[in-house]
User: What shape does this take?
Amino acid sequence: MAKTGLVEKIYNWMETLIMDKLVMQDSPGPVFKWLFKLPILQYKLGLGWLTGKYILLLTTTGRKSGKLRYTPLEYLYDKENDKYRIAAGWGGKTDWYRNIKANPHVHVQVGRRSFDALAEIASDQEVGEYMRMVSSRHARMDKVWNRWSDTPVDGTLESYIHAAKFFPSVWLKPLRTPTSPDVGVKNQKSGDF
Assistant: This one.
């Protein structure tokens, strides 16, 4: 396992503080919902490379409206298989996760990379293993997992697999064809972010 660097430690400290102490349990609330959307502006201005190491921009099609919906999300990149893992908070009761379940064809921007992808729901086993790995690097993350899970994680893989259902995750697999922003996601010229 790679050594935890200073930037990663600071980032994780801020994330656990926000998710464990400041964000409401049933939804992010209006202030954090607005703050969590700030990277959209960065990407729109062509500055996605500033946060691309940590945050990707996911474009889904609204399950009710049919409009393009933009969501910045933290991700984990699996370089060996060229796919990205993203996780839904709030027990999966997020718009982007519901949109993906209705239509798994999405568009993704990661830094300067832009591609169409197919979203596939990750297994609880995969998510549990990931959660356990994150907790081994950042012990404070157990507080975050425990805040939303109905049973506290106790360090065993089984407890993380149980908690995984409260943090549903998705693999974004790039499609192997040349793409533009209007492929895979219904073309719509809209400034609706």
In short: The beta strands are 55-61, 68-74, 76-78, 83-87, 105-110, 113-121, 169-174.
